[in-house]
Amino acid sequence: MKPLIAGNWKMNGSLASNEALVKAMLDGLGGQAPGADMALCVPAPFLAQLQSLLTGSPIAWGAQDVSSHEQGAYTGEVSATMLNDFACRYAIVGHSERRQYHGESDLLVADKAKVALAHGITPIVCVGETLAEREAGHTETVVKRQLAAVIHAVAHCTSEIVVAYEPVWAIGTGKTASPEQAQQVHAVLRAQIAAATQHPERVHILYGGSMNAANAASLLAQPDIDGGLIGGASLKAADFLQIVALAH
Ligand code: PEP
């Protein structure tokens, strides 16, 4: 299984800056097949642009969220079938910014993962503890509870999800989990996946949280870290490509 390096642009970008960024990434690849699978998860209004810029390239694209509903009176939400219209391969679900600022529960995140899978979209399921939870010694309990809700909902499709371990205290803060801290949690998640599916080897478990060109190598060298979910550094072509180059 190739590593997966997925960018999360969060609420950044414009038609002009996206075009420059994506072109710089494609130029940087120089027509070579990267050693890692690559994806960019972008704000919904830019999916058409990414589809047009990336079709036929080695970079996949995806959304940062998906509705748990199929359609109807859910103002502001974007459905999985809408993401299908733009050929999204991935949808992030349960990012900590959505859990924190939009009150998303484990159950809602699990429903979103299930709906994405039902529409052929791979959910990138984010789990992670806050600083208070880590300091209270609850890291394992929290990430296992978050992942268990998704496993329960998607059942026999567990081998089709991507998991991203993102300690909340490391996201956008410049503080990275040490490779040992990250590996410890990844091993717990790997065991949980292995108990739930006959094909645990198909599941990428990504690390996310201030991963950058300088710290990626030591994180990606850990046995249970299968790639990265990259926020800030995915907005800079050179940094993102360097992380991709380090992942093989
Ligand atoms: C993220 O948003 O998923 C993330 C990991 O952000 P950053 O890399 O900026 O910490």
Strand order of the biggest β-sheet: 1-2-3-4-5-6-7-8
H/E element string? EHEHEHEHHEHHEHEHEH
Tell me, what is the CATH class?
Alpha Beta
Largest sheet: 8 strands, parallel, barrel
Strand-pairing-aware structural class? alpha/beta
Mean pLDDT: 97
Approximate shape = globular
The proportion of strand residues reads 5-15%
**CATH homologous superfamily heading:** Aldolase class I
Q: Might you state the CATH topology name? A: TIM Barrel
Gyration radius (Cα, Å) is 17 Å
Ligand list: phosphoenolpyruvate
Total domain modules? 1
Oligomer: single chain
Count of individual helical segments: 10
Whole-Å distance between the termini?
10 Å
Architecture, CATH level 2?
Alpha-Beta Barrel
Low-confidence stretches: none
Q: What's the helical proportion of residues?
A: 40-55%
Instruction: Please tally the β strands and state the result.
Output: 8
What can you see in these coordinates?
Helix 1 (15-29) runs parallel beside helix 10 (237-246) and helix 5 runs parallel beside helix 7 (139-154). The protein has an 8-stranded parallel barrel, surrounded by 5 helices. 48% of the residues are buried. The protein is an alpha/beta fold. It has a single domain (4-27, 34-246), classed as Aldolase class I (TIM Barrel). Strand 6 (162-165), helix 8 and strand 7 form a beta-alpha-beta unit. 41% of the residues lie in helices and 15% in strands. The chain has helices at 15-29, 47-54, 80-85, 96-101, 106-118, 131-135, 139-154, 179-196, 216-220, 237-246; strands at 4-8, 37-41, 59-63, 90-93, 122-127, 162-165, 205-208, 227-230. It is globular. The protein binds phosphoenolpyruvate (PEP). Phosphoenolpyruvate is lined by residues 8, 10, 166, 171-172, 208-211, 229-233.
